[in-house]
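Work Package 4 report. The design task specified in the project plan requires that, given a folded chain encoded as structure tokens, an amino acid be chosen for each position. We show below one input record used in the internal validation round.
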């Protein structure tokens, strides 16, 4: 449990959401202007002086958003939810809602003093402050949702990473040790069927999932019987029917019987760095055509 908490405490990276802050602040400023007039939400744009009024409202809305943003970052570092969510919620309400609401009142008062209309502060409380408070609470809720989403994503990613490590450990401790000489002789090829997904093809044509990398597997198999011919495939010498030298001097392997059609197309080409080793590995067997 302590390891999980330690992992979740690291979930305090800055919220990279500047475009979101700008767009939402702009919409909030527009809404504040539009709801106090007789014009509709879009009609108010055509009113004279709209943009002159929008600029200070936008700057105030953006400042409020930024204040909640910085407050949330500081609280994420000092009082993460994973340590004590009740205490963190109280701090978020005090500093992220109440303190920012007081800041909004102060900014509105400064604006009205600058435009020499301080009496508008009372109308601000009667008409606008409820929406401003809802705006502040909405921003706090937004950062909580983003934080929780990031937390869940991190838990899921690390859960899959842990399961992958566990699977590798199981294979390392048990499966490789269980490859007995008779089992080795029944293996025709081991190859990558998809990204980091491995498949084993047996001499009888059946196949199954393989849980280890090709590098780990080849170290456990007989060097005389098996060779890693490229980054995607291990071949058993008993499964080879013939080897063709192509016009571009590549070695192309053909497997016995139906085994040839069980592997992905093009996977049976010997890579250039392995050609010398492959030739020595084949030895004097009459497989070349």
């Amino acid at each position: 449990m302590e390891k999980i908490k330690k992992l979740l405490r690291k979930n305090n990276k800055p919220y990279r959401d500047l475009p979101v802050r700008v767009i939402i602040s702009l919409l909030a400023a527009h809404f504040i202007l539009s709801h106090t007039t007789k014009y509709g939400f879009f009609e108010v744009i055509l009113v004279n002086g709209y943009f002159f009024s929008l600029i200070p409202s936008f700057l105030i809305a953006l400042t409020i958003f930024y204040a909640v943003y910085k407050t949330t970052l500081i609280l994420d570092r000092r009082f993460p939810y994973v340590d004590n969510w009740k205490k963190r919620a109280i701090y978020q309400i005090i500093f992220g809602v109440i303190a920012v609401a007081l800041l909004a009142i102060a900014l509105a008062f400064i604006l009205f003093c600058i435009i020499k209309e301080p009496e508008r502060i009372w109308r601000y409380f009667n008409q606008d402050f409820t929406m401003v408070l809802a705006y502040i609470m909405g921003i706090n809720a937004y950062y909580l949702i983003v934080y929780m989403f990031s937390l869940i994503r991190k838990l899921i990613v690390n859960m899959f990473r842990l399961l992958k490590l566990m699977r590798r450990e199981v294979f390392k401790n048990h499966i490789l040790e269980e490859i007995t000489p008779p089992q080795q002789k029944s293996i025709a090829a081991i190859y990558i069927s998809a990204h980091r997904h491995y498949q084993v093809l047996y001499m009888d044509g059946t196949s199954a999932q393989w849980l280890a990398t090709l590098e780990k597997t080849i170290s456990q198999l007989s060097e005389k019987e098996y060779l890693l011919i490229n980054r995607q495939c291990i071949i058993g010498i008993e499964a080879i029917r013939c080897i063709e030298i192509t016009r571009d001097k590549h070695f192309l392997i053909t497997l016995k019987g139906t085994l040839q059609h069980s592997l992905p197309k093009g996977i049976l080409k010997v890579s250039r760095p392995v050609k010398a080793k492959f030739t020595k590995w084949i030895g004097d067997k009459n497989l070349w055509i």
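Residues 2-171 form one domain. Validation will be extended to a larger panel in the next phase.
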